[in-house]
Amino acid sequence: MKQSSQLSDVLHVLLHLAEADAPLTSEALASAMSTNPVVLRRLMVGLREAGFVVSEKGHGGGWVMAAPLESVTLRDVHVALGAPPLVTLGFREDRPECLVAQVVNESLQSAVQEAEASLLGRLEAITLSELSQGFNHRLRAHRRAGAASAHRLEDHHGQS
């Protein structure tokens, strides 16, 4: 079974929007995700309905954040996507007549429900603001490392 990356994809898009100084088109966002703009627009429907983003048509239009990053949790985004299953396990038989399969399925289903409840609780505790802060921290570190690397390169060339 193919894993869904919808939540990850949408969080990626939301961080791009959070960092943007101007509206971003579906084409630009889709390019950043290596997908088709139609796929991106389908993902954005639930986010727009939840009030997290808005879009404007026409010249200078595009997608922008409509909600403060501090007020949107990862669970909120998950719900806006239609709350797809976060944890999945395949069952040998969906509707077993076998008593052994019934016990196995019941135990696995219970474990999946517990895991999903735990994961939803964790997603409730993380905001888009925290993701944005994490991105900006990494960006600053990346830039410092790049500057240090450039200085080492200059020093090396200066000694030749």
UniProtKB/TrEMBL annotation:
Coiled coil: none annotated. This is Rrf2 family transcriptional regulator. SUPFAM superfamilies: Winged helix' DNA-binding domain (SSF46785). PANTHER family: HTH-TYPE TRANSCRIPTIONAL REGULATOR YWGB-RELATED, WINGED HELIX-TURN-HELIX TRANSCRIPTIONAL REGULATOR, RRF2 FAMILY. InterPro entries: Tscrpt_reg_Rrf2, WH-like_DNA-bd_sf, WH_DNA-bd_sf.
